[in-house]
Amino acid sequence: MQIRVETTQDYQQIAEVNTLAFGRENEANLVTAIRNSHFYIPELSLVVEIDNFIVAHLMFSYIHLVGEERLRVLSLAPVAVMPEFQKQGIGSALIRHGLEKANAMGEALAVVLGYPLFYNRFGFVSSVIYGIKSPFDVPEDVFMVKVLENFQAKYQGEVVYPPAFLRV
Ligand SMILES: CC(C)(COP(=O)(O)OP(=O)(O)OC[C@H]1O[C@@H](n2cnc3c(N)ncnc32)[C@H](O)[C@@H]1OP(=O)(O)O)[C@@H](O)C(=O)NCCC(=O)NCCS
């Protein structure tokens, strides 16, 4: 199993992985929209490859945290593992790798909307603990943040997503 950065040759397989994992095309379309935006971070769109076949993908992209200042932080979305490769630790390995890389790149904060039982194991906690507000009307425990080494207490406010996310 190899974790590496996506290349343009991977785009079609990545779309298939997302479509199969989510059972719809919304997330694959989100990936394309992010790639075509200023919010795309090529180094943080990662794939898991097994025998030259892409079985999982994740993408971190830029969003904003708006409080007293407007700060650039990371969104983790989407994360997708092909159904027949799920529950084998692949998604966890990919997320850990991505978080380590984001931290090494000097990023301060990652935001995710997802299953608390899954994301808590990587250190994601409810955003309200840090005074960070979700723009979505969702339960507090599913809107989570992971603070990285460069996190500062001033990182507070409401998260603002680019329009592409609001269509998912
Ligand atoms: C969620 C997902 C990325 C996890 O990847 P994975 O490789 O299967 O995960 P791992 O094998 O590393 O870990 C398995 C964990 O996934 C979590 N998980 C998977 N699907 C879940 C679900 N529907 N609800 C809650 N937890 C879930 C479980 O907590 C499981 O934990 P366990 O090992 O204690 O049973 C993958 O199942 C997937 O692609 N699902 C469909 C798309 C999706 O929902 N993406 C995430 C959006 S937030």
Report on this model:
The chain has 168 residues and is of the alpha+beta class. It has one domain (2-166): Aminopeptidase (3-Layer(aba) Sandwich), CATH 3.40.630. The chain is 27% helix and 35% strand. The chain contains 5 helices and 9 strands, in the order E-H-H-E-E-E-H-E-H-E-E-E-E-H. The protein has helices spanning 11-22, 26-35, 90-104, 116-119, 163-166; strands spanning 2-5, 40-50, 53-66, 70-81, 109-113, 125-126, 132-133, 143-147, 157-160. Strands 1, 2, 3, 4, 5, 6, 7, 8 and 9 form a 9-stranded mixed beta sheet that branches. Helix 1 packs antiparallel against helix 2 (26-35). The longest helix has 15 residues, at 90-104. 33% of the residues are buried. The mean pLDDT is 97. The structure holds coenzyme A. Residues 21-22, 79-81, 86-92, 114-115, 117-118 line the site of coenzyme A.
Characteristics:
nine-stranded mixed beta sheet; binds coenzyme A; single chain; 168 residues; globular; Aminopeptidase; alpha+beta
What are the SSEs and their pairings?
Elements: E1 2-5, H1 11-22, H2 26-35, E2 40-50, E3 53-66, E4 70-81, H3 90-104, E5 109-113, H4 116-119, E6 125-126, E7 132-133, E8 143-147, E9 157-160, H5 163-166
Parallel strand pairs: 4-5, 7-9
Antiparallel strand pairs: 1-2, 2-3, 3-4, 3-9, 5-8, 6-8
